[in-house]
Amino acid sequence: MRLTAARRRDHGRPPLVHKWRQAANRHLTPVQRSLVITWISFGVTFGSVRVITHGIRGGWLPWGNISAGGEHLHHYNIGIVTLATLGLIAVRGDERAVGHPAVAAAYGCGTALICDEFALLLDLQDVYWAKQGRLSVDVSLGVLSVLGAYLTAKPFWHEVGRITRHHLVTAARGAVTA
């Protein structure tokens, strides 16, 4: 069996990501795994959308808004299509898709796209760039995403922390003695 360069550097120990997967297999039920993926994809999508929209508005990204027939398409439209597609999968009862990580990730992404423009849906006015409460909404949704991912699988995250600390301490000791 050939060792990869990373495993040779790590003196044959399994990579950290492999250890995290083992912890996930021990601690997470399929439902918890789907929920963790959903919460993480929600947070990553929400954060990415914030950066992209600020980049478009600030002119420091090379692309612009998405339009169709001269009308601006808000990203909540993409979120609605994503959730409608997932609803079709659920109604259809596709056993291979139920609980699949891609479905969980798509659900988190679609929900984030809708939540990011919730004020527009609520008031039917494009108040996306209004200063009133925008920062508090951004921070609240970010905290909610992290908290949801943590509370969904608390024992798993504690083991990931323990594994990571052990891995780093062991690697540091190996570097000192080398």
List the helices and strands and how they pair.
Layout: H1 5-9, H2 16-27, H3 30-58, E1 67-68, E2 71-72, H4 75-92, H5 101-116, H6 118-123, H7 134-152, H8 154-177
Antiparallel strand pairs: 1-2
Helix pairs in contact: 2-8, 3-5, 3-7, 4-5
Strand content: under 5%
The shape is: globular
Q: What is the typical, i.e. mean, pLDDT?
A: 80
- Structural category: mainly alpha
- Annotation field: number of helices: 8
Described by strand count, sense and barrel closure, the largest sheet is:
2 strands, antiparallel
Reading the helices and strands in chain order gives HHHEEHHHHH
How do the strands of the widest beta sheet line up side by side? Answer: 1-2
Describe this structure in words.
It is a single chain. This protein is mainly α and 178 residues long. Helix content is 72%, strand content 2%. It has 8 helices and 2 strands; from the N terminus they run H-H-H-E-E-H-H-H-H-H. A two-stranded antiparallel ribbon has the order 1-2. A hairpin with a 2-residue loop joins strand 1 (67-68) and strand 2. Helix 2 (16-27) packs antiparallel against helix 8, helix 3 (30-58) runs antiparallel to helix 7 (134-152) and helix 4 (75-92) runs antiparallel to helix 5. The radius of gyration is 21 Å and the shape is globular. The model has no long low-confidence stretch (mean pLDDT 80).
Short description:
By secondary structure, this protein is an all-alpha fold. The chain is built from eight helices and two strands, in the order αααββααααα.
